[in-house]
Specification:
By secondary structure, this protein is mainly beta. It folds into two domains: 281 residues, Lipocalin (Beta Barrel); 76 residues, Immunoglobulins (Immunoglobulin-like, Sandwich). The protein has no helices and 28 strands. Strands 2, 3, 4, 5 and 6 form a five-stranded antiparallel β-sheet that branches. Strands 22, 23, 24, 26 and 27 form a five-stranded antiparallel β-sheet that branches. The protein has a four-stranded antiparallel β-sheet with strand order 1-21-20-19, with no helix packed on it. It is globular and about 90 Å long.
Amino acid sequence: MFAKIFESDPLRYYLPSELTGIPSGTGTGSLYNPFLVTPPRIYAEQLWASGFLLGAFTRKERTPYSDFTLHVMSSVDSIYYPGYAFRHWWLDGVTGVFLGTDNNVTSTLFGDQIYQARDGGLWVMLTSASYFYEAEQLTYTEISGTRKLASDFGATTVNHPMVDRSLDLVVMKTDNEALNQIGVYTLSTGALVRRINLSGAPLAILPEDAKRCYVVHTNYLLSLIDYTTGEVISTLKAPGAEAGAIDYLFTWDRFLRRILVFTQRPNDTDGACLSTFSGYYPVPLSTGITAPIPLRAPRANRSTPFLAKVYGDAGEAITGVKITPTIGASQIVGAPPFTDSDGEAIITIIPSSGTDTLTVTADV
């Protein structure tokens, strides 16, 4: 499971006075999307309510608070012509303080997506998913010689490319993979190295270290994968699945080694943005404990072991959890203070005659 250890400020929308644009007449009827400034709303824009997030990434740069920043890009509804725009926001990577916004976005084409590579580089995937390329870090323009066509990999479309230039690999989903698969390809030649089966269709592929990546599934499970061997190391519930959320963006914080989730939420009553970055560490957290299971048929006055197991959200064993057994008239003659490496504890009792109830609780 993942522990939430960070929450950023929400993004800030432009007010009408801060935007360049001229209404085609007087009053709100002369504006595109006049609902944006219909009281009590006051802001001149909003994230697209249907969700049109373009990408999230981290960058090494000095701020008043730390030495790296968080970035998100998205389409927005706007009150001025042509009624939509593209925005870029950035926040401090340690404190989450909102730092700024501009319209210096990867592309003015709907649906372009930006992804962060293993080395921190930025790669942009075209709307049609027919090619992707490396983008310059500040202007987001295409770096000459980096464009990769889907046909280079024997495919028609590509999605979620995660580039590992040091190993000359790209992990992605092409139309050649099955629904619940990703492919690992040689970046320079396009040769297929292997395909990896997943428990759901991929939603995002995030570089974790020199040979591993996280894959977020559309069913909001998350797998840690060694893409050099194809081994699926673990599968857990993905962080950030929040009731009422409109959309999500996932990215990897290579500075503090956190999974970052940008959650798009409905706006406040005055139109203010409530969407934020959250940071998560993968840590084992208890979500349940089994009822004690007798390992031998209970008999009065005969020693009887019972097994209880503490587990996490994906059924994984949770070790080192303090347990407390309680019982009525029967006698507890043995119980470990903590669960073992399999998340299990064996409690031994000597039952009295008649009916009794053994209860095991865990301190988490």
